[in-house]
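Feature request disguised as a bug report, sorry. It would help if multi-protein outputs had a clear separator. Right now it looks like this:
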Amino acid sequence: MVVFLNGIGTYKGEFQGRPPTNKQVNIRSADLYRIENEKIVGHWDVVDQLNLLQQMGATFPQADQE
């Protein structure tokens, strides 16, 4: 089973050393569940952290392309 989640909030507190911007941010994730005999026996979570950090103003150096 796959569950897609979309959360919206306001960046009001320090996060990983980054000061708050009071801007709206959106975070997306996908939760994957393995089910056997009607019970969840495995769970994996994939969060789009890069997109969230970019919304928070984080910048990343460009990789050299040859």
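(second protein starts here, but nothing in the output says so)
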Amino acid sequence: MKILTLRRFISLAALVLWTPAGSWGASAPQPWGPMGQIEAAARKEAKLVIYAAPGHANGDAQRAVSQHFQQRYGIAIDWTGIDARDIAPRVLAEQRTQQYVADLIMTGLGGGCTPVKAAGYIAPILAPSTFEKGVWRLEPLAAAPAERDWAFIFMPLIPSFFINTQLVPPGEEPKGYQDLLHPKWKGKILLQTPAVGGSGSGWFRSVYKALGLDYLKKLSGQVVIVPNGNEVPDQVSRGQFAIGLAASTGRGRELVREGAPVRFLQPQEGPHLSYIGACALSPVSHPNAAKLFLNWLYTREGQLLYTKPMNAIPLRKDVPQDHVPPNERYVEGRPFLAAEVEDLTDKRSLELYALGKQIFEEKK
């Protein structure tokens, strides 16, 4: 079983050798600047367009960030919610026809940004705020330290189980992944397909590395597959299933706040690290507004304003995580499940999508 601590994850990520779309050369990357000039140019652009996958920016976060940016910088943010599996095809179609609509995309590394990067439409993130030292719970560029072309936007340690409290009585909750194999849960567990980009594929990569192929084959006989991550919490809340895996955290937390009989549950193996982040497109219509936004996002102000309505763990240690449910907060040294960074390359992503489909959708 391969279960990591944050320190071990970061050390492994730093060892990965990436092949940049555009060579950095021998010199170390330098931050954008001067930011005063970038801000002045961004104010003239007056607009920023962001494509966001589910779980990356809920309505409350969008409103809070948009209002702040409009008032402080005079920049209107146009948020477009798109299913994770549809972001890359849409961006590629727009870029190839020189329709530069989106400036930034908020999506996973393996499913969303990787195909766009392979086509040469991703720019490095050189925001000065990301170069700060000693302030991070999780460094924004930890998954891509050499290329700096994808960054975490908060610390996405995801509680992997989502249960209906009326169908899973107190004392009968699954303690860990092995408990999901009990016959009583057969056909009562819902999972978003790991065969496409989304929360299901992120969960699959983590569990595949931690628990192995044999375990996943056994689990496949217990679960029902749906195409969309939001369907998992919705159907669990309606009592159609007792347990959800890879539930959309954004939608799941909405249901908890609304009083639905559901809650997230941490398995004894720990949460799984999801690759929820952002990448900057190139070319774009509002390059300076994109740079200004990314630099602001990783400041103390940006992390506080963005993560609080998301109930998400801030990347920065100087931003409290009081808004995060107590059982979901980051605890130093607590283990978690994580995919290997090399499993997030375009080629490897396609291989793992095929493997997920074979195990969960083509099972006999």
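Even a blank line would do. Unrelated, but nice: Residues 166 and 262 are 8 Å apart (CA to CA).
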